[in-house]
What does this fold into?
Amino acid sequence: MKKITVIFLIILLMPFFVNAQKSDYKNYRELISAFKSLSSSYTKLKVIGKSDSGKNIYAFIVGKENLPAVFIGANISGYDLAASEAALILSKDILSKIKNGEYKDKSFIIIPVMNPDLYDIYFKKPLEKRVKNFTPKDDDGDGLIDEDPPEDLNHDGYITMMRVKAVDGNYVEDKSFPYLLKKANPIKEERGVYKYYTEGIDNDGDGKYNEDSKGGVIINNNFPVLFKYYKKSSGLYPVSQKTTKTLMTFVLKHKNIELAYIIDRTNNMIKLPEMGRSSKLGDMPVKVPERFGKFLGIDTKKKYKISELVKILNESGVGGGMKITPQMVASFLGVAPPASIDPKDYSYYKELSKQYKDLAKKEKISIDRKVKGEEDGSIVKWFYFNLGIPTIAVDVWSLPKAKSEKKQNKGLTIEKLKKMSKDDFLKLKDSEIESFMKGFRMPPSFNVKMIRKMVESGRLTPLKMASFLEKYQKRSEGKKSLNKDLKSYIENELKGKGVVKWQRFNHPQLGEVEIGGIVPFTDEIPPYNKVEENSKLVTNFFDMLVKKTPSVKLEGLKVKRENSGVYRVNFYIVNEGYLPFYLNMAKRNKYSMPILVKLILPKDAILIEGKKLVKINDLGGIGSAKKVSYLIYPGKNKKIKIKIHHEKIVDMEKSINLGGVK
Amino acid sequence: MRKKILSVFVLALFLTSLSYSLILRYDRYYNYKEVFQALQKIKSKYPKFVKIETIGKSYQGRDLWAVTINNPDTGKASDKPAMYVDANIHGNEIQGTEVTLYIMDYLLSNYGKVKKITDLVNRVAFYIVPIVNPDGRAFFMDKPNTPSTSRINKKPIDDDRDGLYDEDDYDDLDGDGNIVQMRKKVKPGTGYLKLDPKDPRIMVRVKPGEKGDYIMLGLEGIDNDGDGLVNEDPLGGYDMNRTFGFNWMPPFIQYGTSDYPFEPSETYAIAKFLITHKNIAATQDFHNSGGMILRGPGANNMGRYPFADVKVYDYIGKEGEKLLPGYDYMISWKDLYPVFGGFNDFSYRTLGIISFTNELYQAQQDFNKDGKVTPEERMKWNDEILHGAGFVNWHHYKHPQYGDIELGGWKKMTTRVTPGFQLEELCHRNGAFVIFNAFHLPDVKIKEVKKEKIGKGLYRIRVLIMNDRMIPTRTQHAVMKNIGKPDYVRIRGKNLKVISGGIEYDHQLKKYTPQKHHPEKIRINSINGMGFKYIQWIVKGKGNVKIIYESEKGGKRVKEIKI
Ligand SMILES: [Zn+2]
It folds into this structure.
């Protein structure tokens, strides 16, 4: 009897116990049950649809569904377990803030795993780094589907790499980090030694190894904005995947979403969206639609090249001082989509980015790491470029940049160069300049003599030179640094874990090979303790953002009785929030339903001026206001009502008794 | 006398031999239900050749039918090169459906009577979707409309962004079954139009120095929702020929499209059908109007078509101009206007299929043959050819918002829709274009297999494979973009060892490029229109040897020889 009670007690305590003890990633089922355990009267965990592999996709909904909503979508990559864990931590934080009386006028839609098909692969043996889902597909175009997947030949639980010595090998060992090979560079007198393959056998006997592994499509490339046609891993066409369609239809139905917070591998706060990128226009001759042509005096039967139209329009002065660009004409005529963030929207992103970086500094979380910018065909691009919703993408962790062994350079540095005048520079010794330039590995034609000449003539200023060198350095670093970063991370932070030493193996087709390399996902999934540490930034920045969402209010109501018994009613619809009520992209895309201001009058009242339905198309950032005005001849009953509605605001109603006004 | 009788007799004989009895009439239009009955009628007459399936549902729940025409005695449909035809994706562009009915009717009623048709039906399969937008057709034919309304599907859209959907459609105010125009006489000088002094049915714009006394008030309708506007939120929907998943652009770029590609169940069903029927090597869809044979690109931001495919397009398109007098072979983006997310682009660019779109019908109203059709000439057409049945004469109506106005204008079955007396010819000529196209579906034959002893038990086997028609087994585009399965030629024998093999690059000198792996299965990618390939193998062994050609669109061919 006693024994049973004890067991019973243990069982009762177990979930708590497990949760408290758990210091590693949860699998999909465990993660969802962690969300279940957060449920309360004002939350809902619901299945929004299925993924391509038939898994449920869940949304955790906090707050009333008629309130403006912030969308939190985590882990569109599928394997980004850290993002999903961060979404859980963030959800807990939201709930505790609500308990403390915050976030009163908001609701939250949290999808902790947007792409569940790749979630559990982390727990499966052998572990293989896959980023594509399991939709069957012919990767190599030989007409066979998924015929050559990799195999864990040495049974160590990982799919790593194979290297085999070959006369025509074109890889060599990276001497500083032997777990990786690099392409031999004959110019540097490197002779190729190895052939380099993923671990496995050539299942279909076509001479290639593991060229057609299972699946699939990268869900985060399957969204319709800047979709890459003909790229197999993007899918046959945009939104070809069930997972993508489930997510999109869900988002499109929720017209109350005012902000999207995407937690995944992308970070657009460290790496801001690109400016000045244009979509492919071609030399498309276009006809101008009659409704514009007539107005602009352009022959609507003739075809013009876009560049010709730009010239005509700029000369005609219709821009009103604004310079008209080919992109503007193309998108105006509907021949090309925007590919570059709107400049005004960008300034908001830039300001938020600054605050993100400041917060990171405060939280002591490094932002000096390799981050991914927004990908074409991604959910981040779709949210912003298509729906025009402010979309902030953050990651939890990424590979830290290797600390460059800074030689204490007593001589010249880029920083010093920036501050130099022409004369300062010319006073430098040749040897100083030479040793400085050596560090950049510039082409030999770029020598001291030439630089001196250029600076002397004024064609090159020290500042220009510094910024050029900076860019040059970044570009060449980008290419080489992955191995360096990985090496430093494995050696310094993982203390040597995360690698598999090269071991001999007798391969049925290749003969003697060596198998080894990097443990899959080492550069994508951090140790669990990092998640808890870095989630602070994810959570606290989110809190900042929520407080910056638009907040639309009715203010400055004034009622005045005028001559002859008519009443003037004036008020303002004002945005008291930081972010504008609609980014420029939303306005441009017409994904910007107006705020509806409805006036409800007694039947016998007469509306002399003003409209029964006023549409407020948009409001700018903080303090932006639009005036609404009515002139009313009231009926017997002098009560009127104003109703203000929009999915993205808290609906308002105001009753006014004109009778009480003097 | 006798001679005359004889010649009449001969003529009669000639006529009987030419006459085929079609089951349906083609001087009239079929509404949605009647199309279904017509299909059933064709099926019950030729049950062996006809399969009707439902491939999806419309927004309002109507069935989308696909008909397969195939002779099972000569093989399964899926093993043959196939021609896909659809119509009426724009609900108001109805006559394409009659063309598809005609094609089925004509092919089957001539089968066994006319050799060219018999051979064709034996060799290829036809997949036909007579109505892609059933809701649009049903609404267009059964309810009052203009020639241009009911183009889109029936998904409600909030056109005026007031939170309400489809709340202010056009109205047939006088209940005559037509939606026409509203015009109003106003004080001289306050209008911008006047009546044509020669024909008061025609409105003309006032010239400088003149005073107008008429204004137009748009299509027939009232302010249904009391918001002070008339017809500001009419029915539906998406322009479904902008919702296909290639070069798709969102609604703010491509007017009328859906929120994402293939959002409408109708176009999703079509896409699924095309993707799963990998034997389709040519597609044709029918619209109205203007008399055009269109090919892509729909827009030029995705590059041009490769040269080898343009050759095929040009050949079929230019031949089409001859079969369809007055029709022009054109490139959509260049000669018409840019279309993003059109059927045609998806079919060719995503699936690698040769694809044409015909804009059916151009009325022959240029009575004085000056190359222009004036409003007066259009009226003459109404008065002398249609005897007044095409135009609703202006008549008074008391409008709740506009007061005293006049209603009048062209009826829905005019301007874009072919009149009954011309419909059969239109069906036949466009049917002939489809048949021409189908005739040029790849026809691959293993023309010869030669063996030659080269000593030490080794043989050289040389095979000639040829495509006798203009459409390639895989388009150049499909080969370049890795779309679909490559064509393969295999050699197989019980006691056969394949030592080497490959495609010949110099037949006269017997030179070939050895394929490194699996030499028994040579990847030839494709056979061009009117093209050929020589394959060479070096083998060892004896007995029966099979040469097998396999292609998604070219079918399967086997030839046996003995060593
Ligand atoms: Zn059309």
User: Anything to note?
Assistant: Chain A has a mean pLDDT of 88. The first strand of chain A starts at residue 43 and ends at 50. The CA atoms of residues 4 and 10 of chain A lie 10 Å apart. Residues 401-492 of chain A form one domain.
